[in-house]
Design a protein that fits this description.
The structure is a homodimer. By secondary structure, the first copy, chain A, is an alpha/beta fold. Chain A folds into three domains: 3-55, lambda repressor-like DNA-binding domains (434 Repressor (Amino-terminal Domain), Orthogonal Bundle); 60-161 and 290-319, Rossmann fold; 162-287, Response regulator (Rossmann fold, 3-Layer(aba) Sandwich), CATH 3.40.50.2300. In chain A, 48% of the residues lie in helices and 17% in strands. The first copy, chain A, contains 13 helices and twelve strands. In chain A, the strands form three sheets. A six-stranded parallel beta sheet of chain A has the order 2-1-3-4-5-11, sandwiched between helices. In chain A, helix 7 (128-138) links the parallel strand 3 (117-121) and strand 4. The longest helix of chain A has 17 residues, at 190-206. Chain A is elongated. The N and C termini of chain A lie far apart (64 Å). The first copy, chain A, binds a DNA duplex through helix 2 and helix 4.
DNA sequence: CTGTTAGCGCATTCAG
DNA sequence: CTGAATGCGCTAACAG
């Protein structure tokens, strides 16, 4: 069933059918009704592929993320997908993992599919070998980077002010009398670096003791690192992390060592994921505005697609959420 | 840049270019190399749209889920996406929420996009007003239902044996001396019903006291329900839930009332999500095989797309995971 | 082994 | 306001 079949049955030309389908051009009311009746009768659905041949667009956007099982990516991707859906766009989801080859493979698939834009989530793209492909793609396709930064034509970025958030967290804990800080982070991404810098800013400003550790993502690596530090007799009274999940590993280890939270040690996570309300005590954390990032990314993209001038870089402020661990 | 440009530059016909692109038909080695050189030179990427015009497929599958922020959907969707990617398929992700209108809208979009198949995750599709559209779509497009069931041509289902899992959980707790059971569930879906039936099976078999409550999804509704029951003086020594998140609400409330877990009350969740290891005490739960469900769904789909006979219904057994709450 | 040709289903001129 | 003709970029016969 195609536009020809409809046209024949309605006794009009395919051009007319196309017009009523797209509500373009003027069509006499009686003609329109005739066509619409046939459309309804066969429950006709136009082929986006054939349409795409002409318009060179499938009204589809690619989302490239590391792993949707991670709550951060899930939340941002959800927000993007929902905003896009309202605009009539579909979303192709790509879980690339950390492998550069995979990322390139996905990027290529998206180009083949002629997506209207690619949204990179999480800026794990500090990888220099990805710069070339991305810049190449940006020649024809606008690229939005969520939580990353890239100065290049047709590439737009939306970021959360992670640096300031971390700094403010330390400020707060210092004001509460904390003097010896630990920072555990799990990824060397753009956002990861911002957080680290924010931590550095604050500890140097306040002249407090501090140590920084890179741990693998997840609960256990953090648990083990803290256990190692406790066993070694290291003295600390505040732990900040780049991820809620990591902070929960810290919490578990502290509990196992009978170190009270927040009496002896304060703990803060990052992202304000559901995890932070599931653990005990409930985790103080940073709301990194996952939903808003997604919404804003789509807003920027929408402008770009309409040919309007859009802001190259947008920064959103995080909120500090204090629960039971501070 | 299209196939004609490549053909001209390589001094061959478009048919030859198409052949090397698709590795179809015999091409002399020297010719192939000539073409490949040009392909590389321009970093040529064929248009999936134009290809789709002929093959009537974009090598794209639609995943329809309620909400990807829910860890269950995230895990299943991730598994599906990854398996599909290996086969060269992309995934269009749809978060429908609970609204039937939305679901129909998404379904229609997927049909327009001529997806090769639609995978429904979570069988929230007990909604009768969805039956017609789904059956209609299945006329042309195979449909896979993950964690649901539907007897209809060209519709395939993959489910977890939730009923048995719940039953075995109760069996276990009875064997541990528990005598008075609560079951909190949060969704009236296919899977939700299976779990409920499993619970019923077991309590009637063991002749133990039991009560069943429908609560809204999330931590707080469960918290409040348990608080209400505790305040009312209800006596119980085991709580099972249809979701880890719900179980954590139970845990929090029990702790607030100084009821010890597992000494006074045993608690079991469902899904073996990360939440279950984040809470304290760590939650005993049911591994509902989210990854495997995704993998199997794609395996079935792959058979169907190849025209092979595929199993109409596949059932996967869940595992019981005992941690600190039982 | 290679080239020619004919569509795929639609949007879009341009006439009428 | 409506229709006929054209082409988007590719695959798939069919010839050669």
């Amino acid at each position: 069933m195609n536009i020809y079949d409809i046209a024949r049955e309605a006794n009009v030309s395919i051009a007319t059918v196309s017009r009523v389908l797209n509500d373009s051009g003027r069509v006499r009311d009686i003609t329109r009704q005739k066509v619409e009746a046939v459309l309804k009768k066969y429950n006709y659905v136009p082929s986006a592929i054939a349409r795409g041949m002409m318009t060179n667009s499938l009204k589809t956007i690619g989302i490239v993320a590391i792993d949707i099982r991670n709550l951060y990516y899930a939340n941002v991707a959800h927000s993007i997908e929902q905003s896009l859906s309202v605009l009539g766009f579909n979303t192709i989801l790509c879980n690339t993992g950390y492998d550069t080859e995979q990322k390139i493979k996905y990027l290529r698939m998206l180009v083949e599919k002629k997506v209207d834009s690619i949204i990179l989530v999480g800026s794990p793209f500090k990888d220099p070998s990805l710069d070339k492909p991305i810049e190449q793609i940006s020649k024809n396709t606008p690229i939005i980077i969520v939580n990353g930064h890239y100065e290049y034509p047709n590439i737009y970025s939306v970021q959360c002010n992670d640096r300031s958030a971390l700094k403010r967290s330390v400020d707060y804990l210092v004001s509460k009398g904390r003097k010896s800080f630990l920072y555990l982070y799990d990824a060397e991404t753009f956002s990861g670096r911002q957080k680290l810098l924010g931590f550095m800013d604050a500890v140097s400003k306040h002249q407090v003791k501090s140590e920084v550790f890179l741990v693998k993502p997840g609960l256990e690596p953090a648990y083990e690192k803290i256990q190692e530090l406790v066993s070694s007799g290291l003295d600390f009274d505040a732990v900040l992390t780049s991820e809620d999940f990591t902070a929960i590993g810290v919490l578990k280890c502290l509990a196992a060592n009978n170190i009270r939270v927040p009496e002896d040690v304060s703990v803060m996570g990052f992202n304000n994921s559901v995890l932070s309300v599931c653990c005990t005590p409930a985790l103080s954390t940073v709301d990194s505005k996952m939903e808003e990032m997604g919404r804003v990314a789509v807003k920027v993209l929408h402008k770009v697609l309409k040919g309007e001038k859009a802001e190259t870089s947008t920064v959103i402020d995080a909120d500090l959420i204090f629960r039971e661990t501070t």
